[in-house]
Design brief:
The protein is an alpha/beta fold. The chain is built from eleven helices and 14 strands. The protein has helices spanning 8-29, 36-49, 60-70, 87-95, 117-120, 140-150, 202-212, 233-264, 292-301, 331-339, 351-368; strands at 53-57, 78-82, 99-103, 125-129, 153-157, 165-166, 169-170, 177-181, 195-199, 216-218, 221-222, 278-279, 285-288, 340-343. Bound molecules: pyridoxal-5'-phosphate (PLP).
Length: 369
């Protein structure tokens, strides 16, 4: 059996007949930039996120950067964020000329450890940027409490959390603003790049609307230094169709995760721990293994593709060497980077495929003892 890590083709085949007429309609109308589907999708996805406002942009990275700029983060400011994240979280801060100040992760949920945040605050701190990594919410209540007390903004990196909830509320509605990505492999993926900023603050949303479109509210009246970072109308039309399926797809991911959990219970693999306050939507299903390289090789031999998210902690990348962190500064993140392994996870993965993966992992254990 060959099991891919993700499968973007079968989903497209399934809903292709629904999407093609929508793309055709955009071609017929010719409203390629900021067309009707963008406005409609902004209403629909912000409703899904539980916010009153939403702005479609060109990527998750741009969404993060423009949200940070909207709350007033400037060159020289500091933004506290997770050491354990994808590089884009830090890049969004660095592109402004601000400094990412990293905090290690909680050993159980892999997200920023709220207990370590206060020590990282300085007079230059402007915002906290928690990440809902792998689709599991960060522990937001203590983060919001610290932010309130210290007068800081909170931007959620919800790029892996389309539909996760924290204490019954959707990720993306918990901080002052949030950023989503529609990169094809995300739980809600476009046929190319796309992103979104969600917020309940109309004034902050308006700032992002200006920023994404050359800094103008009225055509050729450029009030701020803007970007060209708009969600394409064609992508919005595609996303509108896919959004209707998202909750069902997330449920299928959760069912696959539950099956992995059942089949691997009692094994030596450390399974994702779902916090009592959250629903996890398993953008990634990440286990930990002591002999990670050997497990991965064994699975490759069985036709099973896996991934590592992420092999090099952000502070140990060459790109962020200038931050001046040392090996050992974020011990949990550093240890996990050597142990984590992402198993195949997508809605169309069948029970038989999950069972095949789990059995292969059991077999690996039995041959090693
Ligand atoms: C994907 C991702 C981003 C960036 O999104 P792009 O659309 O690729 O720019 C940012 N943060 C996290 C955690 C992500 O997973």
């Amino acid at each position: 059996m060959q099991i891919p890590f993700v499968d973007l083709v079968s989903q497209t085949q399934e809903i292709g007949p629904l999407i093609e007429p929508k793309i055709k309609a955009v071609l017929t109308k010719g409203d390629f930039i900021l067309g009707n589907d963008v406005a409609e999708f902004e209403k629909e996805f912000s409703k899904f996120c539980g916010t009153s406002q939403g702005v479609g942009v060109a990527s998750g990275l741009d969404a993060l950067e423009m949200a940070l700029r909207a709350v007033g983060v400037q060159a020289g400011d500091e933004v506290i964020t997770a050491a354990n994240t994808f590089i884009a979280t830090l890049l969004a801060v660095a592109r402004i000329g601000a400094k990412p100040v990293l905090v290690d992760c909680d050993p159980e949920n892999y997200n920023i450890d709220p207990k370590l945040i206060e020590k990282a605050i300085t007079p230059k701190t402007k915002a906290i940027l928690p990440v809902h990594l792998y689709g599991q919410p960060a522990d937001m209540d203590p983060i919001m409490e610290i932010a309130k007390r210290k007068n800081l903004f909170v931007i959620e990196d919800a790029c892996q959390a389309h539909g996760s909830t924290y204490k019954g509320r959707p990720c993306g509605s918990l901080g002052h603003m949030s950023a989503f990505s529609f990169y094809p492999g995300k739980n809600l993926g476009a046929f190319g790049d796309g992103g979104f900023v969600a917020t309940n603050d109309a004034a902050l949303a308006e700032k992002v609307r200006m920023l994404r479109n050359y800094g103008q509210r009225v055509k050729y009246h450029h009030d701020v230094l803007g970007f060209n970072s708009r969600l394409d109308t064609i992508q919005a039309a595609i996303l509108r169709v896919k959004l209707q399926r998202l909750a069902g797809w997330n449920e299928k991911r959760r069912a696959n995760a539950a099956l992995y959990g059942k089949l691997l219970a009692g094994s030596s693999f450390v399974l994702p721990k779902v916090m009592p306050y959250s629903t996890h939507i398993y953008h990634l299903f990440v286990v930990r293994a002591q002999a990670r390289e050997a497990v991965q090789q064994f699975l490759t031999g069985k036709g099973i593709s896996t991934g590592i998210h992420y092999p090099i902690p952000t502070h140990q990348t060459k790109a962020f060497a200038s931050l001046g962190y040392q090996d050992g500064d974020f011990p949990v993140t550093e240890r996990y980077a050597k142990e984590i392994l992402s198993l195949p996870m997508f809605p169309e993965l069948s029970e038989a495929q999950v069972t095949y993966v789990a059995e292969a992992m059991r077999e690996f254990e039995s041959v090693r003892v």
